[in-house]
């Protein structure tokens, strides 16, 4: 990495920062739209979270933090049962999990994470997250609410919107060139909204009435143990993905970020970013692989670029019409794209099993993966009215406990973080 890359003029840094936000934008706003949060708040907390991450890591790692899809299922479940303020309390607690892991890594070294959360634990949890959400994607693609309770758009009209949106996303992801290949979600949204406008599905009256400048709809968090139990176990999976993201950006830039500034600092930064998001009413934050791809493509290694991206995200958060326009995106548009995204989450889990050569003919591994998948996808509930674990939270805890209790497991693969 040459010194000249750190001495770019401010205008060039600003342009590169806007480009990074553009790459992250589709996934950044889609997640809050799915979960019923304010996309302007998500923009604000993505910006604040990225700035906090840069502060903790001494502005050495060129990553952008924004909405995490891993938390969609527990957010939907906890929101329906306890309300959005309680969900925000759970998001704060999820950030504390990162902070705790950061302290453990500082004390015990990165290899500790591999022993506590090996691939055989994390992979089935990630698979469960993706597959448990698949009914939500299908219902939305067919014009229904995520839970299938009501029809929002007639079926035939919805399919005429959702399938072109899905196909566009697929084609851009596979056939796109240059920076365009990194924005398949935005391309799918654009095509889907264009078709929806032609079919008269989009209502722009709310956009016309909205103010140009407005304070985002921040939410004051509430602490509720039920919501916290939904959120905290799920934080284990994205914490592991965080490690992979740090290693990936290190490979792109030629730097060993696991050693300097240190994995404990990057985990701490991610944890503070997530807890800060909960304080304002935004979704949990995570590092974005799309932005890492953009860094590799453009060779924009200067971490100051992410400062600009964060500032632009915060500025956009206060444009009222912008947020209302995002909320007017029709359900079938989001559903079509989510058919790919939720499936992709499951594939990440499958790839984790394959990449780490987890032997599923070994009884121990087979038991952990099997029970975790059935609990997570099948909707197992353990407990009563006052205290209950279910869904992704239950499957994450089950995988962790089975790994700790069952004998064996000496053949864990060394993670990249340990080798670095």
TrEMBL record:
Its main location: membrane. Keywords: Cell membrane, Membrane, Transmembrane, Transmembrane helix, Transport. It is found in: Cell membrane. The chain crosses the membrane at residues 20-53, 60-78, 84-104, 116-138, 158-175, 182-207, 227-250, 305-327, 333-354, 366-382, 388-406. It is a multi-pass membrane protein. PROSITE patterns: XANTH_URACIL_PERMASE (PS01116). Belongs to the nucleobase:cation symporter-2 (NCS2) (TC 2.A.40) family. NCBIfam families: ncs2 (TIGR00801). This is Uracil-xanthine permease.
């Amino acid at each position: 990495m040459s010194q000249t890359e750190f001495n770019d003029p401010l205008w060039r840094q600003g342009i590169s920062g806007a480009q990074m936000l553009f790459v992250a934008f589709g996934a950044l706003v889609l997640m809050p739209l799915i979960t019923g949060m304010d996309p302007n708040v998500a923009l604000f907390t993505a910006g604040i979270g990225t700035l906090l991450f840069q502060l903790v890591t001494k502005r050495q790692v060129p990553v952008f933090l924004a909405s995490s899809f891993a938390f969609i299922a527990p957010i939907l479940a906890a929101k329906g049962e306890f309300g959005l303020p309680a969900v925000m309390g759970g998001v704060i607690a999820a950030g504390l999990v990162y902070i705790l892991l950061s302290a453990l890594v500082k004390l015990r070294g990165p290899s500790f994470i591999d022993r506590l959360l090996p691939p055989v634990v994390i992979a089935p949890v990630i698979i469960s997250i993706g597959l448990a959400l698949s009914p939500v994607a299908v219902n939305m693609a067919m014009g229904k609410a995520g839970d299938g309770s009501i029809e929002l758009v007639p079926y035939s009209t919805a399919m005429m919107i959702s399938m072109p949106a899905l196909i566009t996303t697929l084609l851009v992801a596979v056939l796109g060139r240059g920076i365009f290949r990194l924005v398949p979600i935005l391309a799918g949204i654009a095509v889907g909204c264009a078709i929806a406008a032609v079919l008269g599905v989009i209502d722009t009256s709310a956009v016309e009435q909205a103010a140009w400048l407005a304070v985002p709809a921040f939410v004051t968090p509430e602490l509720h143990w039920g919501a916290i139990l939904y959120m905290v176990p799920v934080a284990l999976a994205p914490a592991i993905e965080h490690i992979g993201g740090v290693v990936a950006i290190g490979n792109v830039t030629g730097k060993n970020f696991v050693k300097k500034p240190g994995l404990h600092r990057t985990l701490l930064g991610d944890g503070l970013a997530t807890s800060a998001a909960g304080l304002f009413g935004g979704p949990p934050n995570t590092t974005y692989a799309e932005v890492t791809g953009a860094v590799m493509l453009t060779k924009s290694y200067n971490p100051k670029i992410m400062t600009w991206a964060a500032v632009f995200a915060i500025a956009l958060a206060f444009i009222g019409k912008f947020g209302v326009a995002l909320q007017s995106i029709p359900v079938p548009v989001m559903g079509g794209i989510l058919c790919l995204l939720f499936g992709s989450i499951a594939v990440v889990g499958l790839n984790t099993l394959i990449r780490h050569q987890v032997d599923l003919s070994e009884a121990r591994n087979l038991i952990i993966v099997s029970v975790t998948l059935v609990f997570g996808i099948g909707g197992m509930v353990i407990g009563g009215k006052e205290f209950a674990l279910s869904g992704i939270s239950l499957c994450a805890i089950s995988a962790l406990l089975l790994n700790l209790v069952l004998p064996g497991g000496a053949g864990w693969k060394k993670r990249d973080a340990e080798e670095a």
